Amino acid sequence: MSASADLALRTPSPINGDDGAPGFGIYLHWPFCAAKCPYCDFNSHVRHAPPDQARFAAAFARELATMREATGPREVTSVFIGGGTPSLMAVETVAAVLEAADRQYGLPDGIEITMEANPQSAEADRFAGYRATGVNRLSLGVQSLIDTDLRFLGRLHDVTEARAAIELARTIFPRLSFDLIYARPGQTLEGWTTELNAAIDLAADHLSLYQLTIEDGTAFKRLHDARKFRLPEDGLAADLYALTQEITTTRGLPAYEVSNHAMPGAESRHNLTYWRYGEYVGVGPGAHGRFRFENGRRVTMAERHPERWLEQVERVGHGTAEIEQLTEYEQADEMLLMGLRLTEGLDLACYEAIAGRDLAPERLTLLIDEGFVEPLGNSRIRATRAGMVVLDAVVADLAA
Amino acid sequence: MTETPLSHIRNFSIVAHIDHGKSTLADRLIQSTGSLEEREMKDQVLDSMDIERERGITIKANTVRLEYTAKDGEHYVLNLIDTPGHVDFAYEVSRSLAACEGSLLVVDASQGVEAQTLANVYQAIDNDHELVTVLNKIDLPAAEPDRIKEQIEEVIGIDASDAIPISAKSGMGIPDVLEAIVHRLPAPKQGDPNAPLKAMLVDSWYDAYLGVIVLVRIIDGRLKKGQTIRMMGTGAKYPVERVGVLTPKMVLTGELGPGEIGVITASIKEVADTRVGDTITEDKKPTAEMLPGFKPAQPVVFCGLFPVDAADFEDLRAAVGRLRLNDASFSYEMETSAALGFGFRCGFLGLLHLEIIQERLSREFDLELIATAPSVVYQLSMTDGSEIELHNPADMPDVVKIDHIKEPWIRASIMTPDDYLGPILTLCQERRGIQQDLSYVGSRAMVVYDLPLNEVVFDFYDRLKSISKGYASFDYQLSDYRQGDLVKMSVLVNEEPVDALSMLVHRSQAERRGRGMCEKLKELIPRHLFKIPIQAAIGGKVIARETLSAMRKDVTAKCYGGDATRKRKLLEKQKEGKKKMRQFGRVEIPQEAFIQALKMDS
């Protein structure tokens, strides 16, 4: 495909099914936001003057070409445009970067192409345009269906706008997901039951349900340290988590990852690549990539500052600030901590192939006896429901 | 240096409670006699260790020779021996005092007499000292010289009518102090310069350049460079290399005569070869009898010291060896613990001594240490008639083989504003104390208790300070060994005994101590995936129990492609942290938990 018109022609074709392979994804990071949300520690920047989108699009294209040289020809299984707020991108910008990705790698028919968007009406006006560039899955940052909580979370939209955006997106995109943040200050089990059921009623095929986390360097961190608000204590947070599993399972959107729920078959192909420890290239300010390189795995980390990234790409063809070649143990740790997040669990044979050793059999047996991990078939293990809610501790135990 | 007639020598020390201004007064005396130039002066000149300066305490005795021309035009030599004030060093203090004829009794003009002042002043009186009373900090608004004089007369029983008001800080009254030293303190008793050498070993310390330096007071005879001396207590002989005085810099004089205080070096390798209080004589022409009062140092409190990082064990071994070079009263032997690995069981003169050694190890040798709970020395009488000294609860023999156990008791004096007397009496009773005396001076009470040392080493002092808002002062001396109903309390975490936490306690205290330990550990051990019972037990019987509930939630909400690196690094840090934990079955206990659990409450 070479033009946005061609992409639009493929609208009716279904998105490819998941073959269970780790895959190879392309991640594109648009670093700008209209406002910084108080909980967010992602690489996002607010600009008073609108950025020169054409210049950024050209830089994305140039960096994609550099990445293609590093990875060699690969069969791409997904594209993800994240941010920041990608729905601040002009339709032409999205078209240009997707065209560039297609030029470099040749995007196969029917692959998942996701874009993140905010529900503000101004951005929703561009949904159809994005669809025409080939985007076939939209991920909306709804965050809550309660207006006061949206204001607490520093969101610029209200519930009415969010519902309208969801309605509209459902008619335009074959796949639709939205995010909610829960375990908010003052939230009760009853309140969350109502809100979550209402969210499922909106008939998206995928939900990302994140417990509110106080990240370093955020406005929430300062407010929380100053005791301006309190998070639910761990017991309630654990109960909210269990409730979430119960409701989503009953309503046909079971968890396939710690915080991600989907109708069977509607899992995010792109994100599965991260958790299955597949490969991906990262393009754009602050983007990370991980791909096979010289018999090992290479991590690329881009310059985070948008304009410095831009200038570097224009000067040397890429915005990479740091490169790391991972050792076997480092790869094994990453595979473990990513893989156990999945309901499908981790393939021990794959782990052993990468780590060059087996996974702490004695500790594994103990964790299985204690009910935090369970074997799945001959070669897989996964966290049980009890294990999932304390997964970081389980992983630390296994990795020690 | 021309020889000074005995009548023009004064040997004196300063007796004071901590913070009452002893070191500042010494600084002023040094300054106003011109012993050091202005640029050489710094605060607490005589306290050469960092710890001494920072904490405002004196650990090692030190001496300075002051040259003073009095108002009568005569030239005098004033030897000041600065002594440690703390009870842990009571023996060292007694030897320093024995080397002098008089003392300045320094009392803070607003705080008044404290328990420590009392213990030291009685020692001075025991040594037949003349006392010159000095009221310090007279310029502070809270000063009440008349009330304090009255208190001194009532509590100590000495005449305070001629007490000298001073401000060591501003220098006010210092000339009066110097005159009083000359006119009110006696000259040294007449010694015989031609008799065989008889000198007291007052103190010794290690100097990196000169080796062991010995502080001596000459009684009879002359001590000269080139002489071969003999330590009468140990029998060791040494050729004298240097003879001098401290001003406080060392100034070589070649010899010292009767009444004089000075220092010598004699190629002595270790401080342990010198015993405070020993008699030094000439090998060829020895004196007939030793000076009275010589006692070898006896450790009173023991604890285990372990490196936080097992790899530091050899460094710890070298460090304790080095400290021992300079402090013969500190003893050590190797110890192994299932919980803490390889370390040393160390003996100390008391709790302050223990704290100082620990601090010096961490500060001067950069070692991170875990100290086990301090324990006293128990005397075990076995059923087979044998006697065992128990320094470490972990070595406790099978109870059926023990006939009875004796523990050390102390006699403690506590002085306090009477507002706090009630809670203090309750504390002493709780700690198995037996009241011996209770008296009042104005609004201050002095109470004397017999207490088991075992109850005091735990957290007595901190509790005392906290219930009296810091106003009560406390001093003690060892009295005797008494039979007690003592049991070994073990601590079990997730059913596994933790050897480093076991202790000997009185049966009546076991439940309280056990509960305290379990509650503390519950706070200190991080939550695990499963619930953890924490128990204190005597033999097989659980006397206290807490349950640390299982972790409820610990999972990262968002983890995508850009998070893998950060999460991996976090995991690596966790793994690194786990290496520093001690494993008890499935339970990992951080080192920090041991340090905190074993720390006395504050």
Question: Can you walk through the features of this model?
Answer:
The complex is a heterodimer of chains A (400) and B (602). Chain A is α/β, with parallel strands linked by helices. Chain A has two domains: 3-274, Aldolase class I (TIM Barrel), CATH 3.20.20; 345-399, no CATH class. Chain A is 42% helix and 21% strand. Chain A is built from 17 helices and 17 strands. In chain A, strands 9-10-8-7-6-5-4-1-11 form a nine-stranded mixed beta sheet, with helices on both faces. In chain A, strands 12-13-14 form a three-stranded antiparallel beta sheet. With 602 residues, chain B is an alpha+beta fold. Chain B has five domains: 6-184, Rossmann fold (3-Layer(aba) Sandwich), CATH 3.40.50; 198-282, Elongation Factor Tu (Ef-tu), domain 3; 301-372, Alpha-Beta Plaits (2-Layer Sandwich), CATH 3.30.70; 378-484, 2-Layer Sandwich (Alpha-Beta Plaits), CATH 3.30.70; 488-599, 2-Layer Sandwich (Alpha-Beta Plaits). Helices cover 26% and strands 34% of the residues of chain B. An eight-stranded antiparallel beta sheet of chain B has the order 11-10-16-7-8-15-12-13, covered by helices on one side. In chain B, helix 11 (507-524) runs antiparallel to helix 13 (591-598). Classes of the chains: A alpha/beta (400), B alpha+beta (602). The A-B interface holds A 25, 27, 42-43, 210-213, 234-235, 237-238, 241, 258-259, 271, 273-274, 280, 282, 286-290, 299, 301, 324, 330, 333-334, 337-338, 341, 366-367, 370, 372, 388-397, 399-400 and B 528-530, 551-562, 564-565, 567-568, 571-572, 574-575, 578, 586.
Low-confidence stretches of chain A: 1-13
- Greatest chain-chain interface? A-B, 50 and 25 residues
Largest sheet of chain A: 9 strands, mixed
Number of strands of chain B: 34
Family (chain A): Belongs to the anaerobic coproporphyrinogen-III oxidase family. HemW subfamily.
Pfam families (chain A): HemN_C (PF06969), Radical_SAM (PF04055)
Keywords (chain A): 4Fe-4S, Chaperone, Cytoplasm, Heme, Iron, Iron-sulfur, Metal-binding, S-adenosyl-L-methionine
GO molecular function (chain A): 4 iron, 4 sulfur cluster binding; coproporphyrinogen oxidase activity; metal ion binding
